[in-house]
Design brief:
With about 400 residues, the protein is α+β, with helices and mostly antiparallel strands. About 30% of the residues lie in helices and about 25% in strands. The chain has 11 helices and 16 strands. Helix 1 (about 5-15) crosses helix 3 and helix 3 (about 90-105) packs across helix 11. The longest helix is centred in the C-terminal third of the chain and has 21 residues, at about 290-310. It is globular. The two termini are about 30 Å apart. Bound molecules: glyoxylic acid and manganese (II) ion (2 copies). Glyoxylic acid binds near residues 124, 353 and 354.
């Protein structure tokens, strides 16, 4: 029996493992990550999954099919969070998948394929700036150099993996061979307002928008806030402000584009000092790769022009780019049927947020089921879903699993 109450209780229980008292922040390879893993590993085993932690820190639970060793239908989502996060982004997909397996194993039901439930260790990329590290490792797309990325304290991923009890040299072995994974399907909150506006508990995702992430460093000259006349300043923060507005203008130039400067740091950072150095990030997304690439090109050109006009040094680094990930039509059709079996009108919609399927699409066809969330609010402690919607989502996922037919 599926229990939506238990799904929500488990999201609550995971939310208590946070570095931020009274809020939720749980980053990759942190003590809170370990505590959350221990909980989820226990739930996986209780549900009848053989569960382990792989070399990159993903949780992997496997439920064999009618024979041992069959290719798998892969399910799951991520267990890390953004800063001051909500409790459903990621976690709901892992817990709902475990709940579905628990229902199958309670009846002793085996399917003509195995099921694997993945709890990805790093999707948000908060600690090391490396998004989707967990799913990229499964796809065999983590180059050794990536493990040298450092967190704010100068610790590399390689060092953090060792401190977590994992062996970074085994990361290449996490990759799956072709044919091992029949498909990847993820349940996730919508993180947007469409389903709520249309009065629907769930929807079927058509594609995940692509994204580009960049890091910008502006070098001006620090000086005395009282003595340096305005026309003689090289204020890096004033230049950055102009850049932020230029990025906003570019993103507003097309309805399909979004652009965000989500992090900015001014140094030395004192009330009476002209900011000499600024670092900020850029995140650009679109449902068409060409549109996104044009926008990034325009942003770079404008930042360079602003820096030149203001006699400011500028260094722009591309951190990561992932193209649009289309969901597979044959999987969308099967999800449509599962939604219709719930008596819910089938609504297909794109995903503006990034998801692990973007990395996994190189090894398997992907699909996603969205669950309505309150006000479309996400990446925010106010993230909220109802027990009824969690129930519809879990039942739809279970129907999809039980009727899943691999592409012949
Ligand atoms: C992941 O949550 C993203 O879209 O940034
Ligand atoms: Mn997120
Ligand atoms: Mn997510």
């Amino acid at each position: 029996m599926l229990s939506a109450g238990r799904i929500l209780q488990r999201c609550d229980a995971l939310a208590r493992h946070s570095e931020l008292p009274g809020g939720l922040t749980r980053v990759y390879l942190s003590p809170e990550n370990r505590a959350a893993n221990d909980l989820v590993l226990g739930w996986m085993r209780e549900a009848g999954l053989a569960a382990r932690v792989d070399a990159i820190g993903n949780l992997v639970g496997r439920y064999e099919g009618s024979l041992a060793g069959l290719p798998c239908l892969m399910l799951g989502s991520h267990l890390d969070t953004v800063r001051d996060a909500g409790r459903y982004d990621g976690m709901l997909g892992v817990i709902a998948a475990i709940e579905c397996v628990a229902a199958l194993s309670a009846r002793g039901q085996r399917l003509p394929f195995a099921i694997e439930v993945l709890g990805f260790g790093d999707e948000e990329g908060v600690r090391f700036g490396t998004t989707m590290l967990g799913s990229r490792a499964i796809a065999g797309a983590v180059e050794a150099a990536v493990l040298e990325s450092r967190d704010a304290n100068g610790i590399t991923i390689r060092q953090a993996l060792r401190a977590f009890g994992l062996d970074p040299d085994q990361v290449p072995g996490v990759a799956r061979r072709s044919g091992e994974v029949l498909a990847y399907a993820e349940l996730h909150i919508e993180q947007g307002p469409v389903l709520e506006a249309e009065g629907l508990p769930v929807g079927v995702v058509t594609a995940i928008n692509g994204f580009s992430r960049l890091k910008v460093a502006l070098q001006g000259e620090a000086g005395h806030a009282g003595t340096v006349p305005m026309n003689l300043r090289r204020d890096a923060l004033a230049a950055a402000a102009q850049c932020v507005l230029a990025i906003e203008r570019i993103a507003r130039g097309d309805q399909e584009l979004v652009g965000t400067v989500g992090r900015i740091e001014a140094r030395p950072g004192a009330i009476n000092v002209i900011p000499g150095e600024v670092h900020f990030t850029i995140d650009v997304r679109a449902p068409r790769d060409e549109l996104r690439e044009q926008a990034v090109g325009a942003a770079i050109a404008q930042i360079e022009a602003i820096a030149q006009q203001r006699r400011i040094g500028c260094r722009i680094e591309k951190l990561q780019e992932l193209g649009v990930a289309k969901c597979a039509p044959w999987l969308m059709d099967q999800l449509d049927r599962a939604v219709a079996a719930e008596g819910v009108r089938v609504r297909r919609l794109p995903s503006g947020a990034g998801h692990d399927g973007m990395a996994l699409k190189s090894i398997a066809d992907i699909a996603m089921l969205f669950v309505r969330c309150k006000g479309g609010i996400s990446h925010n402690p106010a993230e909220s879903i109802t027990e009824e919607d969690a129930a519809v989502g879990a039942r739809t996922l279970l129907h999809f699993i039980e009727h899943f037919a691999a592409r012949s």
